[in-house]
Amino acid sequence: MNLFINIILPCAFSLTIALWFILKLRKRIRVQKQIINEKNKVINKQSDEILAIHNIYITQKQEALEKLSGGIIHDFNNILYGIMSFTRLAIDETDKKNVIYSYLKHIEKGHKQATTLMNQTASFNKQDNLDQTVSVEVQGVILKLKDQLTESLPVNITLNYDLDFKCKPIEINPDHLPLIIKHIFSNSIHAIGDSVGEIKISLAETILTNEETEVLQLPVSSKYAKLTIEDKGRGITTEDLDKIYDPYFSTNARSKGLGLSITRGMILTNDGAITINSDEQTNTRVSIYFPINES
Fold this sequence. Notes:
By secondary structure, the protein is α+β, with helices and mostly antiparallel strands. The chain has 7 helices and 7 strands. Strands 2-4-5-7-6 form a 5-stranded mixed sheet, with helices on one face. A two-stranded antiparallel sheet has the order 1-3.
């Protein structure tokens, strides 16, 4: 009896108290988990709203630039037409041995360069001709570009591929996709510079949620082709990310082109979307989405 009172009963009481504390603690943990989950839902919702507002801002900015570029294209083409018409008349009337003839040919060459720039600017404009779209296999375009990409690669950079060869075709202007790939690939080379680095080109079919489709402003589709070009080079600062689609903006001081604005314009023209994720110190990942052509 003394053993029961002095040892067993206190132990049983202690175990009961310990069990009560454990049950209370587990209940408290469950409550805290619920609170954390609710807070995470709110944070995720707010993050999606911030991203959507940012995308709307970028889109409105792009639309304003498109209207401006459209007006510039129209006026500048009129000027080019007048210059070239009179230049060709002058060439026809000038002896090839005359030094003026060579001057006129330089003007003609400059006209061709200006025309190329205007064609690029027209591609940047969302009102580019959509009647030229055809069904294209992205993996086939990448394979055709393989030799060209390899030749442009410095010895300090390695190029790897991860392609889904069963990826279904997309509907796109066939002239645009090679330009999109080559431009982003060129940016990756500049980002790595003289350092030892790697560029990886990936292709896969993906399914997006309704929220993701809305944020990316993509047309509704059962599946999307996701083309990713990632480099292990210098990343992009947060400040520069806000300006990345501005015409002529570049983190490369030697660049004189239209920058990613023309690439984004071609992607949007073909009902696609582009996202850029970058770690300022280590890498940049550019992801491009196009609706799969199910027909």
